[in-house]
Structures are given as structure tokens and as C-alpha cells.
Fold:
Amino acid sequence: MKDNIAKKPREDKAKAVSPLGRLENIKKVFPTGRDEEVIAVEDVSFQFQRGELVSLLGPSGCGKTTVLKMVGGLISPTDGVLEIGGVPVTGPYPDVGIVFQSPTLMPWRSVLANVLFPMEVIGKKNKSSKDRAMDLLKLTGLDGFENAYPRQLSGGMQQRVALCRALIHEPSILLMDEPFGALDELTRMEMNDLLLEIRRINSATVLFVTHSISEAVYLSDRVLVFSKRPATIALELDDDLSYPRSSETRYSKRFTELEKQAGIALGVVK
Amino acid sequence: MNLTNLVKFCSPVIGTLVIIVFWHYYVLILDVNPVVLPSPELVFRAIWERWPLLLSEGWITMLECIYGFGLSVALGIPIAVVMTYSRLMNLMFYPLLVASQSIPKIAIAPILLVWFGTGIESKLAMAFFIAFFPMVVDTATGLRATPPEYLELARSMRCSRLQTFFKIQLPSALPFIFSGAKIAVTLAVIGAVIGEFIGSTEGLGNLLLVANSQIDTGLAWASLAVLSWLGMLLYGVVVLAERVIMPWGISETSH
Structure:
């Protein structure tokens, strides 16, 4: 694969002593009306290292997306400490790429123009960013579609474009909010493998929100199992499945064990 | 052209021919006085023989429509933008804008005539006055309808306010703007004709009145036909512009 995608070498985990991200006693309360409020997140603390893929696994509406958006600076916590690279998060910052549940591609832009959108916003659309966009499209199997409009693509392909867009400015953190939740099972499995491949190449740090146990176990280095709302971390699961992971991994004994542990923490396995 | 397209293309033509044939025999069999209803041949003959006149008068009416419509776009969109992004302006002027629509438009025409005279200006003012409202309302609706996910995306990328407007909100409002423009352009024709009715020495509306008063019903109906072609032509131009400007999709009210 081209060099300009593989810019960041995978860091030795033992060397990364200070965490990339740190959340301590994070709480989020949303006002819902006069004198009424809903506690979305209650006392969540965790850290993540550079190059790690951490899944936030929990039932729908449990507040895990809120946690993700707070990490991205889109929502500010009501209480607690939230730091990225030792700096408190006060709002959106450039070093992050976000993939939402829906692709949110702009229908009036071609695939290439959608991918280049973040570069355009920061005034860095040039030959090299265009080359990088083409490389990303190639990596995600979209070469030949750069001039197509989003509506001409399938849901899975649209989400690939969204992934390219999130990676175009080489962010050190990739935030993914149930990115494959709207896709069918087969496409989802393909996208999981694609994500593993992207991580293998550029060792991105990823926070991955999902409500699929198997997806979380398959992708992650660590799974944070969230309780029902208000969100707290019910279990922190060290996902020690070996790399490289493939469809074989899904049928290993360890995979099933991890799934079961997560299931018990979620309360779906008695 | 495959069979489905052929049927789609031919059906309205055949439908029109059926109506014309029915009209022809209705006039012939019942021996209708041409003053009441001229036969189709009479109308076609009027179009055939008087086409230089119809064309030159039609040209004037078309200019009135284009100027009036152009003005409604040029002023309507910025006004919608201001009303959408300034809460104060919205509170101050939006109710007034809506209330102004309760005035029967035709009642304005004599006043416009006093202000702008019997020339082209009073007609384009009338066309503008009618076409302006849907332009403002549809544009404002479109600007408010930006999907919230896009705005969140813009925020995560730290887009400036101008970037958010020009790169996200305005393009996502385009389908609404075009559906407003399609209504506005047909209304502009109505406005121009009303203007010509109230006071004019030229234009198709004037020609229609003159022909009517001279009991030249063939010419009156011919003016009517040319007017409807003018309306279709202008509508077609807007649809064409829509295709060119937004090749990625079709607007809400595309036919």
C-alpha cells in the first residue's frame, strides 16, 4: 500500500505510558424541560492508549454515543475530567475523524469531493491531498467511483466513503458511532475486515460505539460494556484475540468466551 | 427511444389531438357562433397569419416575466437568508410578509400603474410582486430543513459560519429553492398579464383585450395559446437550469 497512508508507525504499546485519552468521572445531564432533566451518563471513567481500538458496547439509547460525542468535543460533559493528549477538551478539535451512523455524505458532491471536504474546510485541498484521497478510495475498494454521486452507491459503499472522509486529514483519533449498524450482516462483516485492515496499515486509535457483541469482540483490543441508561461501565473486557483476525477468529473458543462474558455483563446471557 | 418512452411522449400529444377534434366537431355540429367559441382552424389560422404580431407582443410579455421573475429570485433568496439567520429580522418582518399575502394581488396593480406608468416597469413590478412570496418562503423552508447530521458534521470539522452556509446549508436548500422558482415563474406570467390588463399598450395581455373588443376571437384565442406556450417555455427553462445546477438529483416537485 502507498506510503502516505502508512504515515504513522504503530507505536510500541509498552512505550506509550501516558494515555492518549483520559476520561474521569464523566457525567452528562440533559435538560428535558423546565425543572426536568435526564442523566445520560453517570460517572464514566476510562483511558485509551495510542493505537488502541476500544469498543463502547451497550444497549440502544444507553448513552454510549453521548460519551463518544463528548470525546469528539461535540458535547461538553456536565462534570468530570476529559483530556486528549493531556489537553482538556473544550470543543471540536482537528485531530479527530468521525464516522456517524448514517454516512452523511453530501448528495451534491462527488465521492472524491466528499472525501476531500475536510481538506477544503481547512484550506488544504491540493495535489497531495487529492492523491491521498485516491489512495484511501483504492484501499476501501472504491477506485473507479471517485466521480460518482453518493446516491449511485450502496449503503456499504457510502459508509466506506464516509470512512475515507474521516481519515483524509490523518487524525490520530477515529470516532465511530455505530458506523455499520445500518448495514446488512454480510456487508457489516466486510466492513469489519476493512477496518481491521486500515488499522493494520496506519495503526489508528479508534473508539467504536456498537450494540453488536460479536462486532465489538471481533474488532477490539478492549471492550467497555455499558449498563442501561444512565451509562456506567459495567465491565471492562480485555480482548486478547490474536492478530491477524479473520473469519476463522469468529469460530474460535476464545471468541465465544469473550462474547459470553460481554453478554453476561449486558444481562442478555443469564 | 424504447416503447415506454414512446408511450410517455405520445400520450399527451394524442390527448391534445382528441380535445382539438372534439372541439372542432362541437363547433361544427352545434354551429357555434365564432364570437363565443372560434373553431380550431380559426385559431390556427390566426396564429399562422398573425405570427409576427404574436411574436413581437409575446417577446414583450416574456421580458416582463423574465425581469419580474429574475428580480424575485435576486431579492427573494437574500431576504430568505436574512430572515432565517436573524431572529430579530424574522420577528419584525416575517408576519408582515405573510400578512401582505392576504392582499388580493390584483388590487395592487392600479397602484403600481400610478407608480411605474404604462411601460414595462409596472408589469415587471406586478410579476415580481406575485412571484416573490413563494421564492422567499420556499428558500427559507429549505434553509431551515438542513439535516442536523450535516450541521453536526460541519461542527466536528470546525467549519466557519460562512463555510457552513455556502458549503452545506445553501446547497442542501437548492431543491426547495428550485421548487419555489417553478411556482414563481408560472406566477410571474400571471402577474405580467394582470399588469397588461390593467394598463398597457403592448404585450400579449393587451393584444388579447384588443382582439376581444374587436370581436377578433381567433386572435384572442391565438394570444391565449401563445401565452400558455410562453408559460411552458419559461417553466422548461427553470427545469433545465435545475438539471444543470443540481445534476445529483431531482427536486421535490419535479415532473
